[in-house]
Amino acid sequence: MKYCDLNHSILEWGSEEIVIPYRSPLDNRIHRYFVDFYVKVEDINKQIKKYLIEVKPKKQTKPPSKPKRQTKRYISEVSEYVKNQAKWEAATEFCEDRQWNFMIITEDELKV
């Protein structure tokens, strides 16, 4: 957040300000997805771009490995993965409708 405040290319930013409705495949009900960050930037060509950014551990962006027997932990990880996929699909559609970009950032991108 300090990075956003100090970066002159970032014109606006907010944390968990954008709410996107999505249908959960787990219960088939509509839920609300609070995307981690909204960022409006001016790129090197002086074009304005808007991004919705989700920050997640890399492990949660991939399907969990199936163990020899289904444990509660595995079932929980699968449920979380399926729910995240529905959220990210809704966020992608939301951004496409507005000509924004949706990004998922993991620890790989956050390393300094």
What structural category arises from helix and sheet content?
Answer: alpha+beta
Helix and strand element order: HEEEEEHEH
Q: Give the count of helical stretches.
A: 3
Based on Cα principal axes, name the global outline: globular
Task: Describe the secondary-structure layout.
Blueprint lengths: L1 H5 L3 E6 L3 E5 L6 E5 L2 E6 L5 E8 L16 H27 L2 E5 L1 H4 L2
Parallel strand pairs: 5-6
Antiparallel strand pairs: 1-4, 2-3, 4-5
Describe the structure.
The chain has 112 residues and is α+β, with helices and mostly antiparallel strands. The chain has helices spanning 2-6, 72-98, 107-110, and strands at 10-15, 19-23, 30-34, 37-42, 48-55, 101-105. Strand 2 and strand 3 (30-34) form a beta hairpin. The longest helix has 27 residues, at 72-98. The two termini are 15 Å apart.
Describe the structure concisely:
The protein is an alpha+beta fold and 112 residues long. It has helices at 2-6, 72-98, 107-110; strands at 10-15, 19-23, 30-34, 37-42, 48-55, 101-105. Strand 5 (48-55), helix 2 and strand 6 (101-105) form a beta-alpha-beta unit.
Keywords for this entry:
112 residues, two-stranded antiparallel ribbon, 6 strands, 31% strand, globular
